[in-house]
Every structure is written in C-alpha cells, then in structure tokens.
Design brief:
The protein has 117 residues and is mainly alpha-helical. It is 56% helix and 9% strand.
Length: 117
C-alpha cells in the first residue's frame, strides 16, 4: 500500500519522490515542462527562455534591492526613459578614470548595517 502511494505521488509530481536526486537545473526544466505540457524547444531555446525565466524571477528581488542601495549610496544614477522605463547608469560622481569617488568600503559597511537592522 505504501509503495503504491509513492508511485502515485511520483506520477502526479515527477519532481518529487524518485526524482529528488536530479540536479536542481534538471528539476527546473522538468517543472517548466509540467507547467507547460505542450512546450518543446531546442537546447538553445531552453537555455535562453525556460532557464533564464526562472533565474530572472529568482534574482529580481535581489537585483532590485542592490540597485536601490547603489543609487542611495551614489554609485549609480537612475533616470526615466521613453515609455516610463527606468534606466541605471554610472553616477556622475564617477570621474573620467572610471573609478567612483564614493568609497566601495562605505557601501559594504552600509550594506552590513542594513542587514543587521
């Protein structure tokens, strides 16, 4: 009876049970196919669209907070472009040498303080 339950669970969700030993990327590809059962693509398409789509959703919150911290510390500037899209670029505080006049160490210290508060 217990074995029958395990088999039915694995068939219902191939990412669980028997496939738990699959590498994380293989599990992500399998989840994508479960979510989109009619999907098919080449290796290049899978890499460009399926894998990157999941990576973007995973990293977006961290990228957003990192950009906000960089803007707040003066390392980068943001401006609104056509259509209301926000663009980021190196701050004007940066000299011609390409090095920011704002201390990287100050940024690291402020990030530590931010995490601890």
């Amino acid at each position: 009876m217990a074995r029958l339950m395990l088999v039915s669970q694995a068939l219902a969700n191939p990412c669980s049970g028997f496939n738990a030993k699959l590498p994380e990327l293989a599990q992500q590809i399998l989840r994508y196919l479960q979510d989109h059962p009619r999907a098919q693509d080449t290796i290049e398409g899978i890499t460009a669209w399926w894998v990157s789509e999941r990576a973007i959703s995973r990293w977006l919150p961290q990228v957003r907070s990192s950009l906000a911290a960089l803007v707040a510390q003066g390392y980068i500037a943001k401006h609104t472009g056509p259509g209301g899209r926000i663009f980021y670029r190196l701050s004007r505080r940066t000299g011609r040498s390409g090095r920011s006049q704002v201390s990287v160490e100050n940024f690291r210290t402020s990030k530590k303080l931010e995490r601890n508060s």
